[in-house]
Write a structure and sequence with these properties.
homodimer; 223 residues; mainly alpha; Arc Repressor Mutant, subunit A; 2 domains; 10 helices; DNA-binding
DNA sequence: GTCTATAAAGGGATAGAC
DNA sequence: GTCTATCCCTTTATAGAC
């Protein structure tokens, strides 16, 4: 937004966004005060209201910074997969990959903020009562509808309801893992340290894709 | 704890616990004030400190009210399953059932608080930074270890790490679904309303058990 | 654009009457 | 065991100097 030299400490606005992202991911939106944020960002309390207008708008700004690019990339990858598999439906694992890979890529852009952003993403996906900013809602809903449609075509033998639930379960696995990636690293640290996000997400996709393979129990329309 | 007639409005202490459980589940621990709680419970602010000593201890009390019974029942059911399958390992779906069923039962005890407690449980399983009360920690760890052990025996072909991760994914599905059960009911309401918790959890177990069936990719010890 | 100072509201906790 | 009244702290937000 504003112009500045390359190797100078980030602008106040950016530092605030970074600090907010880290703290929100760690402790949630409500529990973090503006003082916590400006303290960590080495900025003044008043700077938040100067740059963003209010705490709520700061939350929106942090979300918007990533949500747009990620959802656009998801749509791109899904469309790309649909082209590659034009003869038949896209495999479930490819659909889940199109959903998750953009998150991994966004995290990888800056290794320093890797774990920070992991948790923040997980929190966005799971926080109760939190309302997505109006600016990203339409794209988000569009994206969710496209993925649901692709999954229905991938598993035409399943009822629509079952597909929706399993899509939801997959989101649950992803957000839960993002939020607790720290603890999990400790678990696996006994052997060879952090397995790396890429492998972790491959592992998640294997699990969820296998979950989609389960046959439907009972008659259709049981829901 | 205290004696009272059967058909009289619940004691203040109980009303506070009920209100706290509902509000904590809805909005998290930090975002809910004691005034929110006592307002909903039709009690006085000072009553919280009289009955519980502090807000933190109130949180502990809400957790303790359910955590003990649920974890004990989990252990009982796992032990029971191990007896039934004494010739061989307990199937994954039986293990997951032993883990999840006590939650369903606890929820079912009082249909009124069904959705309330769903979300509260989901929040306990997912809230970052929240520390389990010391009084329930040992039982919790013991329980987690027993289930991990059972799952390893159920899938001896998988590496220990893979089993741990997949157990974690299953927890993710469960907590995410508990916390968002409301939204999901809306989705399925088009056809026949609330599918009922029992069916929902059967569905979750199918999904997770199928996830455990996925073959392990790459060599062992890749983590 | 960044600071200090302060306003205005709400938080947890407690003393003391009943 | 329950209430009122109050203390003291932190919160968000803003006004105004620099």
């Amino acid at each position: 937004m504003t112009e500045r030299a390359a190797d100078v400490p980030a602008e106040t606005r950016e530092r605030i966004l970074d600090a907010a992202e880290a703290l929100f991911g760690e402790r949630g939106f409500d529990s973090v005060s503006l003082r916590d944020i400006t303290g960590q960002a080495e900025a003044n309390v008043a700077a938040v209201n100067y740059h963003f207008g209010s705490k709520e708008k700061l939350v929106d700004a942090v979300v918007e910074r990533h949500a747009g690019p990620i959802n656009e990339e998801r749509m791109r990858r899904l469309a790309d997969a649909e082209e590659r598999f034009e003869e038949g439906p896209v495999p479930v694992s490819e659909i889940l990959d199109a959903f998750l890979r953009p998150v991994v890529d966004e995290i990888m852009k800056d290794p320093v903020t890797e774990r920070v952003f992991c948790k923040f993403m997980g929190r966005i996906m799971s926080e109760q009562g939190y309302q997505l900013p109006e600016s990203v809602k339409p794209l988000f809903q569009q994206m969710a509808a496209a993925f649901a449609q692709a999954l229905r075509m991938a598993r035409p033998d399943l009822s629509d309801q079952t597909v929706m639930w399993r899509m939801h379960y997959s989101f649950g696995v992803m957000s839960h893992t993002l939020m607790h990636s720290e603890k999990l690293e400790q678990i696996s640290a006994g052997r060879s340290g952090n397995p790396g996000l890429e492998k972790l997400f491959d592992h998640i996709i294997e699990f969820c894709a296998a979950g989609f393979l389960a046959p439907e129990q009972g008659e259709e329309g049981q829901w």
